[in-house]
Design brief:
4-stranded mixed sheet, Beta Polymerase, domain 2
Length: 226
């Protein structure tokens, strides 16, 4: 049965509020289900912020999730308020852009975020993906699943890169594909073709395109936004 994620989140928020009361500051959804791109078995990426998070809170939250319909699909992010405000800004940029609130206001809980945080989000994302693609090409096997993970990271990177270069934040793959050109567009097109087996040459060619794109972003640094 298809999951009605809006109803699911409504029920979750009710249970969270009953369990944690005023300690619950925010609950929201991110990921493919928030973007309308989910498969039947996709994770339910929940974001929860409490006034603080202790071990017993995590145990209570785990029990609560297990009691939810299809609770085995639940994953995501949970944090205390003080920890959230000390979180690296580049990571909070991505969190704030990709999260839809169902309870509370996430932006009101975050520290001030600026363009330098957005730049760091792109540069750190490019560096991590560059390293992962190089490592996969050197030491990985011919596994489409490995490419899928890299392309997931590439989508997040290209989405923020596009926002910095154009001022336009595009939430979904379909919309982003319509906006991108050249090497950036090709990477998203490559992602769409990862379902079947690949020959070694094509596998390495795709990894090479990822490495080349990330290298370009890293070399240009802040210039990538102009």
């Amino acid at each position: 049965m298809e999951l009605d994620v809006v109803s699911w989140m409504g029920e979750l928020c009710r249970k969270l509020s009953e369990r944690f009361g005023k300690r619950l500051l925010f609950a929201g959804l991110q990921g493919s289900r928030q973007r309308g791109e989910a498969r039947e078995d996709s994770d339910i990426d929940v974001v929860v912020v409490l006034d603080r998070v202790e071990a017993e809170d995590l145990a209570a939250y785990r029990s609560l999730l297990r009691g939810m319909p299809q609770g085995g699909l639940a994953c995501g992010f949970i944090c205390g308020l003080r920890e959230l405000r000390g979180w690296p800004g580049y990571d909070l940029v991505a969190l704030s852009r990709d999260t839809k609130g169902y309870y509370g206001d996430l932006l009101a809980l975050l520290p001030p975020l600026g363009r330098e945080d957005e730049l760091a989000c792109v540069q750190v994302g490019a560096a991590n993906l560059y390293h992962a693609a190089c490592h996969t090409l050197l030491f990985g096997e011919l596994e489409p699943q490995a490419l899928c993970g890299l392309y997931k990271s590439a989508f997040f990177l290209l989405r923020m890169d596009h926002a910095l270069r154009t001022g336009e934040y595009v939430p979904t793959r379909k919309e982003l594909l319509e906006k991108l050109r050249g090497a950036r567009r090709q990477v998203l097109l490559d992602e769409a073709g990862t379902g079947g087996a690949l020959q070694r040459a094509e596998y390495e060619e795709r990894l090479g395109r990822l490495i080349g794109l990330c290298g370009e972003i890293l070399q240009k640094g802040p210039e990538t936004c102009r």
